[in-house]
Amino acid sequence: MKADSVVFTIAGMCFGIILGWVIGTQQAQRGPGAAVAPAATAASGNTQPAAQLDEQRVKALTEQVAKEPNNVEATVQLANAYMDGERFPDAIKWYEQALKLDPKNVNVSTDLGVSYYYSNQTDRALQQLDYSLKLDPTHTKTLLNQGIVLAFGKRDLDAASAAWQKIVEIAPDSPEGRAAKQALEGVAAAHQQQQGSTAPGS
User: Fold this and answer.
1) I need a surface site. Which of 42, 56, 148, 151 has the fewest CB within 10 A?
2) What DSSP designation does 1 have?
3) Is the distance from CB of 163 to CB of 184 less than 8 angstroms?
């Protein structure tokens, strides 16, 4: 529908802000669960430089994990390195391994879900994010990513808005809370634009 495309084009504009916040967070402090769905980039029209894989870091971590297969932290760092390099199939492999070692690690579960989405596995991504929320129903990074996947992967703005609203209720002054508020404002503006474009005589 043409009206729907207008809604998502305008709603996508606010995701440029979210994307910028997430990238800044990752650069300043590589926090698990802080990734964002790739559709946000396309919808907002933003382009980012191609990621480069840190080969030396990957080599060192791979050797460490080979020697210490039960080392959760090293396994997570290896998965993070692959995610930072946008090598998502490899990131998935190591996040899955880390989650086997530490099944209740909500941050690893959320990064795994985001990696699934980057690999065009939207349903699997949502299932993994649901698992994260079973571990911690108030995990704001999970809720933020869930909203983005719902909005861009499923085109379900109502469900996405519900996820973002939870963040605003839980932690309104957190970085995720501020990003969620901006996303909700973008959705509201999109709805107003849609109503204006479908009004009689428009």
Assistant:
1) 56
2) -
3) no
| pLDDT tens, N- to C-terminus, the chain (202 residues) | 333 433 444 345 455 544 444 434 444 444 544 455 544 433 334 445 667 888 999 999 999 999 999 999 999 999 999 998 889 999 999 999 999 999 999 999 999 999 999 899 999 999 999 999 999 999 999 999 999 888 888 888 889 899 999 999 999 998 888 888 888 887 777 666 656 555 555 4
Is residue 34 within 8 Å of 22, Cβ to Cβ? yes
Q: Torsion over CA of 194, 121, 115 and 22, rounded to 10 degrees?
A: 0
Report the alpha-carbon distance of residue 22 to residue 179 in Å, rounded: 9
Q: Cα 199 to the chain's mean position, in Å?
A: 35
Cβ pair 40, 19 in contact under 8 A: yes
Residue 27 to residue 113: CA distance in whole angstroms: 20
Amino acid at 51: A
Domains in the chain: ranges and CATH: 2-45+52-198 (1.25.40.10)
